[in-house]
């Protein structure tokens, strides 16, 4: 593919306003509204799951019933009525899909519109894609090529059937259903998501990517991603997400679990662009997500990179449990909020092993009436000698009515730990904009330049194709933020 | 090229410019001198289009166009360049990236395709040599952590890159030691040609030893009260501004 074509695709993907606000007319197979044991049995039956999987779900559901929604966050939202949500929606498909030719053309068109080509000839160079539409995985590209290396990349519902031992061993091992309210809910009703296993000593030959799309009305999306990197393996994984524009808020409560064994490395990047609601704050996605990775073995490494521009409310803390000695965790984040968006995001770095290292770089940009909070925990356990953490947390304000907040939590139980925290707040100055103007750079372009400069350390972490997409997303999200 | 007629401007309701008249032809270098508070920097800001100032009267014509009708970015694209007295820092944005954006925005305005990356880098190298710029400056974040001298040289380097018709220099000499002053001035002199004009705003005469102007104007209380050639600058240096003030008061 030529550079030009690549750029065209990216242009289509990022567009100007929220371009993904369309819906796809497609016959859907949906569960009745609301949540009960019967609904969970319905979901499990739809997916022809083995008994152990159903039991696992029911256990989570019963636990969820005993929980109250959390209230400690730095934002407010109306209580969610779980009786009004459809917990399962799937495009009607009678046959099992053996090849892309059998996928409903409407669906293929949807993903084409999103700039995600599922036909392998036209894909973004060297990226294998798993596309999840509402509750189900539609297609996974490049399966055969990955198989040669022993890499498993498939829908998690498929993994339940094809690789039950791995699923049983790892599912819920990092984020148990008892972890929190939304993790329990997800465990009970998750419908699909991606599963990745990288065998020992294998460097995954291409970027793996999952593209999530919420389409059906009143539907929650509860995907579950499980990535296991065996000893001395490497994988880079990307996720992207969009949704149609709707007046009602929609719930997205995902769980992501990463397991890195000895000397393995997992790089997990997210470009989150769920519908943020309109300029008055109506509609948009509630993005309540639990993401956590464990560095199980020595010298294991997990790196989270996220660019969060969408959702009415974002609530997520991709975290690392640094259990193996010498293991390391990283968190690079850009969170942009505009209009009435709210974001409460950050990370937890839990140092358990000796000589463990963690690094946190967070860039929050607030515009309009939005609120943007960084919330981060650094915990050093008693036995974690020589742990090191460096946290840098920068906020940028655009305009007078937005807010930026920082909530650092430090729990240090070992005297040999070195923990650094730096924070800064800045405003895009009129002077900076005028300076750019005077060089012939218009105001929108100037903001984009300044914001991208501000986020550079994080954007540099993204794989090439996505860095370009992310840069454009930032500009689009902030359009019209300076009057 | 640039014709200013009876230009009046105020900030926060306070009148600063009280009827400026100035005509600059292609290739001419005009110096504006004057005591603190005379309105020198206001004049440069108004010409560049800074929103803090309200123009309350008069006209400015630039190459036949009504300059005051244009947005600041369009003025720049038309060929007005302001070398700032206090260049701002833009963290995370390299001078290279910044200039590439600026050059291509101007090209877009003129209906041209963006410059090829290789051609752009070649141009950067050439202009850097011309301006005796240290290569490392262009990869560092724009003006971030630059010394006063580095910032001013970067302004002149940007001027070289953007090839403006009309260069306005706002107290470029302030905060420069003698070596930096010489370097900056050499850069400016290399950019002088028959088509390009300069408006050099300065408080001190020493800059004009290096950048020799065709005309010198004295600005006082928002008006040009005296004009002459380069010798006027030297006279001001000897006598200070007080004699001008007295002269103005006497004529009032």
Structure characterization notes:
The complex is a heterodimer of chains A (483) and B (252). Chain A contains twelve helices and 23 strands. Chain A has 483 residues and is of the alpha/beta class. Chain A has one domain. Chain B has 252 residues and is α/β, with parallel strands linked by helices. Chain B has a single domain, classed as P-loop containing nucleotide triphosphate hydrolases (Rossmann fold). In chain B, α2 crosses α3 and α6 packs parallel to α7. The mean pLDDT of chain B is 91. Chains A and B meet through α9 and α10 of A and α2, β7 and α3 of B.
Itemize the secondary structure elements and their pairings.
The complex is a heterodimer of chains A (483) and B (252).
Chain A lengths: L2 H12 L13 E3 L6 H10 L4 H15 L23 E3 L13 H9 L13 E7 L2 E5 L2 H6 L3 E4 H7 L1 H7 L10 H9 L4 E5 L8 E7 L10 E6 L4 E9 L6 E4 L2 E6 L4 E8 L11 E12 L5 E8 L4 E4 L2 E4 L5 E10 L4 E10 L5 E10 L4 E10 L7 E10 L5 E10 L5 E10 L2 H9 L4 H12 L1 H4 L4 H14 L6
Parallel strand pairs in A: 3-7, 6-8, 7-9, 8-11, 9-12, 10-13, 11-13, 12-14, 13-15, 13-16, 14-17, 15-18, 16-18, 17-19, 18-20, 19-21, 20-22, 21-23
Antiparallel strand pairs in A: 1-2, 3-4, 5-6
Chain B lengths: L1 E10 L2 E11 L4 E5 L6 H9 L4 E10 L2 E2 L5 H7 L1 E4 L6 E5 H15 L7 H14 L5 H4 L1 E2 L5 H15 L3 E5 L7 H14 L5 E5 L4 H5 L4 E6 L2 E6 L1 H10 L2 H10 L1
Parallel strand pairs in B: 3-10, 3-11, 6-9, 9-10
Antiparallel strand pairs in B: 1-2, 1-4, 4-5, 7-8, 11-12
